[in-house]
Every structure is written in structure tokens, then in C-alpha cells.
Amino acid sequence: MSVIHANQTLDCKGLACPMPIVKTKKAMDQLEAGQVIEVQATDKGSLADIQSWAKNTGHQYLGTVEEGEVLKHYLRKSSPGEVKEERKHPDVVTNEVLLAKLAAGENVKILDVREQAENVFNRIPGAISIPLGELENRINELKPDDDIHVICRTGTRSDLACQLLTEKGFKNVTNVEPGMSGWTGPTENNH
Amino acid sequence: MEATTGLSIMTAKELTQIVLAHEELFILDVRNESDFNDWKVEGESIDIVNIPYFDLLDGVDDALDKIPDGKKLLVVCAKEGSSKFVAEQIVEAGRTNVQYLEGGMKSWSEHLEPVKVGELNGGGSLYQFVRIGKGCLSYMVVSNGEAAVIDTLRMTDVFEQFAKAQGAQIKHTLDTHLHADHISGGRKLAEQTGATYWLPPKDAGEVTFAYEKLEEGRNITVGNTTIRIQPLYSPGHTIGSTSFIVDDQYLLTGDILFIESIGRPDLAGKAEDWVSDLRETLYSRYKGLPQDLFVLPAHFGKVTELGEGGRVMAKLSDLYRNNPGLNMKEEDAFRRAVTENLPPQPNAYQEIRQTNMGKMNPSEDEQREMEIGPNRCAVHDR
């Protein structure tokens, strides 16, 4: 099991319903869009409730890790513009095209620019994980001549990553849409 | 204190009385949608809406639009906390006649309502215990200072106190079969009261404790006056399922025959294996019994099955007329009905069976969690 990085940890241990969700909501209001929160709770009912709450509010429920009596829920705050923002990188393929390339055994490198906490619960086998915020500093982990397909959850962060890579001289960069939110191909996880 | 003015508590017992008396009540259930869809408070005069409490964190205005003003309102959640949280806000918004359910659905699931079934020859009485929130039924035979409890539920103190109030000593606890939907209190109650615990041997092959064998024709006497409890082997729901005839008046059918449905044969193995046993029991064995026996099952499926005071009971002859499970002439149609499109299995039914065999020893809290939800032992429970 790898350690999951969260921007904030919220202790709701020992609290009964409704307090875990009440506190999560308050903490979430203070977070920046895209940040990840770890909610520690002992109330078993919090699992189903936090999933439904996230669904109803549009925040992204990443997953839950059980450690003894403690449930650690991971959530990512979504920004309202995440889905609608105008995309700029010209080379775009659909999930299906990428899936076909993988099935055909093409030598494609997949770069996953979601946060590590999103990545551990669900990613394409073999994908390289570099969160968007770290990409500029870690760019030497990638080769400028490789055929790189960039993926995130909905295609927005990967679009920004594609722009950054192109600017840095990468020649063969493609954005994958919509990304992991609609991915039907094989996945792996650490939990 | 000001914030809670006008807010009061309703107990599971009070809610039971409202359901049985067909009193009007509006319920706001604030659990999440999937829990609500799985299982909720039901009653013929009850209106219910589901708005999860986490959709009401910014205020209850949306909920108020859906709650009729002036009607009695009960807010319900899983344990209590969230219903109180929402109910307080509704009161603050100016509504009156607002209550929340003490202990939430957990208490509702555990409440037992005792109902007198009738008198027995020689001065005894037969009582039914209605677990209204889950649809389980237990029975107590009381006669001349002695008592026997049949299909005892986990809440054994209820039976102990009831027997005490009747001035009776519990001498026997009996299970019609190895239960899969709820944890039996038969063994625990027997240990606590020094009674004998009886089980059908064919269901008890893997149990880890001592018990007395329920075998056909072996009578159990309760009290000085003879109230015969006569076991009658009636397989189908489980291979060991045994029915009891009490005082030549009452037929306790366990999970073989219900008022509006019949037992499902798939919870302890493969449905196909026991279909013919089930058909034989329902279409031949029970048919050979006196038709004026009153059938008392171990479950009910719908609140419409609750009769006077909550009692669940019907004459065997009436069931042969009205129960769809007893009116399938073609063997093939019967086979399909009891093996195909069955309702989902009860929550944690495998673990519950292991617990009833003595192979697992979950804590009180874990037992409560395992039993949550409806019983789903009948073929037609949807």
C-alpha cells in the first residue's frame, strides 16, 4: 500500500452521524479546487453517506481505505469550470482510440496527471503518474520524442499538461478525452 | 433550549401503535437513498419521503416544501443523530408537531410487540411477538407457571421479562429451523433461564453446541396441563424445517408457509435440491392436517398481513383458498416460481447462519449490523 497524499486531514473519529459529513462540508468549503481531503471516521454509516453526498454536490469521491476501526475517505474538491473550460491543445483522441491503440500493442506512453490520491484507487496499468502541479519540475522523467497520451479525469488538466509539454519542445503529445471518468478499459489500483 | 421547543421524541413502541391503529403520520426519512430504498417504515396510513440529511446541511427550505403543514411529522434516520439535527431545524423554521424517532431504524428493527393469539385448553395462553420493523414473529406458550418460546429473537430480555410478568418459568426454547435472516436468541435464552434448547437435527449437523433433537412425534409438554407441542417434519425452506402443532389448535409453520406467500428454498443451499420437499410439505403434508388449524408463521412480508392488534394469523383452509403459493397446480410452474426471480437474499445471511451454528461469535453491535434490513424469507417479498 502506498501512502496517499492529501492536502488536509480531517479527524472525525468517534463522531456519530451527521457530524462527519457536517465537518467534511465545512472543511471542503475552505479548500481550493483540485485539493484532496482525507476524512478519518469510525462511523460505518459514513461510507455510504459520503459517497452519496459527493455525488449530489459534484465533488469527486476517490475511495476509502479501511485501517482497523478507522475508515479513511478521500475526496477531491472539484471546480465549477473543470468540465466547461475551453481546451486549447489541438491533438485530441477519445478513450476508445487510446484503448484500441493499447489493444493493438502500439508503443504509447500514458501520462496520468491526476493527483496521486486519485491515481492510487484507479489507473491504467503502466501509466506514468505525475500530478499536473509537479509536471514542470519532473519533466525530465519524460522523453521529448515519445508518443505521449495525457490523461486526467475529464480532459481539462490533461489539456493544460499537453500545452506545457508542447511549450517545452515535446513533439508527439495527445490529449485523451474524456479521460478516467469514462474509462472502460483495464485498470489497476494499490488498494 | 429555545431551539428545541416543540420538538419531542417518539419511541419505536409509540410508532408501532400508530402503524397498528392506522393513524395518519408523515415521515421524513433522512438516510441515504440506497438505505431508504432497501428498507423503510411502512404502514397503510403512513406517507413517507426521503431527503438525505446531507442534502439539508445548508437549510431545510427544500424539505419544507415537501412536508405538509399541520400534519404530524416524524423524522427518521439510521441511529437518531441526523434525524434530531434535521428535526431541530424544521422546528426552528416554525413548524410544530415535529418528532424524531428515538434510536432511529436500529430501534425500529429491534422493537417487539407482544400480541395475545388466544387461550389454550387448561388455562394457558399463546402469545405472538411481532418484530414489526423486520417482519419476524416469535411465540410464547404459557401454561401453569411454565413457558416455551418458539423462534426466539436476539432480544432475549424481552422474553425473560414477559415470562416473569406472567409468573412463568421458561422451560423450553425451540427453533423451527436454522434461521438465515436473523440471529436466533434460542440458545442464549435457554442458557440464561436454564431451559432446554431444541433444534431440528437435520439443520444442526454443523452446530458447535449441545441441543435437544426435535423429532417427529416427540411431544413437549408445557405446564401441568398438557399443552402438546407436536413437531412435524416439514422440509423445504431448510432440510430440517419442522412445524409445531400447539394444543391441536395452532400450526406454527416457521418459514415454510406464510400468510400471503411461501418460503424460499435457496438460503441454505441450492433451491433446486429442496423444491420437491417444499412442494411435498405444502401440497401434501399440510393438506393432510385438520384444515381448521390456525397458521402462525415465523414472518410476515407486508403490513397488510397484520391483523387485529398486529396479530399475524389465518386458518389453514383460508390459505389453501387465497395464498398464491398453495395454488400452483402445475409442478413445473411451482418449480419456476420458487427458484427463479427470487428476491435479493437477506443482509449477511451466510454470516447469520454461521452465527446460529455457533461458528461465529459477533459482538452485540456486529449482530445488530448483520440483521439490518428486511427479512426476505418468502418467495414473493419484493
Give a topology summary.
The complex is a heterodimer of chains A (191) and B (382).
Chain A: E1 8-12, H1 19-30, E2 36-41, H2 46-57, E3 60-67, E4 70-76, E5 92-94, H3 95-103, E6 109-112, H4 116-119, E7 128-129, E8 148-151, H5 156-167, E9 173-177
Parallel strand pairs in A: 1-2, 5-9, 6-7, 6-8, 8-9
Antiparallel strand pairs in A: 2-4, 3-4
Chain B: E1 7-10, H1 12-20, E2 25-29, H2 33-38, E3 46-50, H3 61-66, E4 73-76, H4 81-92, E5 98-101, H5 104-110, E6 113-120, E7 124-131, E8 136-143, E9 146-150, H6 156-165, E10 169-174, H7 186-193, E11 196-199, E12 212-213, E13 220-221, E14 228-233, E15 242-246, E16 250-254, H8 271-285, E17 294-297, E18 314-315, H9 316-322, H10 331-339, H11 349-356, H12 364-371
Parallel strand pairs in B: 1-5, 2-3, 2-4, 4-5, 9-10, 10-11, 11-12, 16-17
Antiparallel strand pairs in B: 6-7, 7-8, 8-9, 13-14, 14-15, 15-16, 17-18
Helix pairs in contact in B: 6-7, 8-10
Domain Rhodanese (chain B): 21-117
GO molecular function (chain B): sulfur dioxygenase activity
Region (Disordered) (chain B): 360-382
The class by helix and strand makeup of chain A works out as alpha/beta
Task: Give me the count of strands of chain B.
Answer: 18
**How many DSSP helices of chain B?**
12
Distance between the termini of chain B: 44 Å
Strand residue content of chain B: 15-25%
* Tally of individual domains of chain B: 2
- CATH topology of the largest domain in chain A, what is it called? Oxidized Rhodanese, domain 1
